[in-house]
Amino acid sequence: MAAEWKHKRYFRLRESDNSLVTFSSTSDANTKIGFKSVYNTSSPTKTEALADSNQTLVVTYEFSSQDAQTAFKNAVDAVWDDSTTPWTVASADNAFRVEHFKTEWLHNDGSVSSTTNL
């Protein structure tokens, strides 16, 4: 895949007392966040890493074309626009709140082109 269609999204999970959850692995983070299928739109290649003392899941999404990346972004944005949530938090009592707090759009060389703090 071409590196020019790539961006990173940063996610964390906050408990009801406002503290951040520490993940034991990227698998643990995925299970606790529970991304819905919208995050598979256009079949991106995903690279996952933990950051911030394992309290942030960083997912790099890479696409085969600009159109594929745009379709992904539009699908994720549409979930937010219709007031639904793009994830299913594993906590049955809704004790957790998922935060997508930053997106970085990347240049061909992987350096940051622009950042959106949410």
Descriptive account of the structure:
With 118 residues, the protein is of the alpha+beta class. It has one domain. The chain is built from 2 helices and 5 strands. It has a 5-stranded antiparallel sheet, covered by helices on one side. A hairpin with a 4-residue loop joins strand 2 and strand 3. The protein is globular and about 40 Å long. The two termini are 28 Å apart.
Note the total helix count. 2
Distance between termini? 28 Å
List how many beta strands DSSP finds.
5
As residue ranges, the low-confidence spans are: none
- For the biggest β-sheet, the strand order reads 2-3-1-4-5
Integer count of domains: 1
Task: Evaluate the radius of gyration.
Answer: 14 Å
The largest β sheet comes out as: 5 strands, antiparallel
Order of helices and strands: EHEEHEE
Question: How would you describe this structure in keywords?
Answer:
118 residues, 2 helices, five-stranded antiparallel β-sheet, globular
Mind sketching the topology for me?
Layout: E1 6-15, H1 26-33, E2 45-51, E3 56-62, H2 66-81, E4 96-106, E5 112-117
Antiparallel strand pairs: 1-3, 1-4, 2-3, 4-5
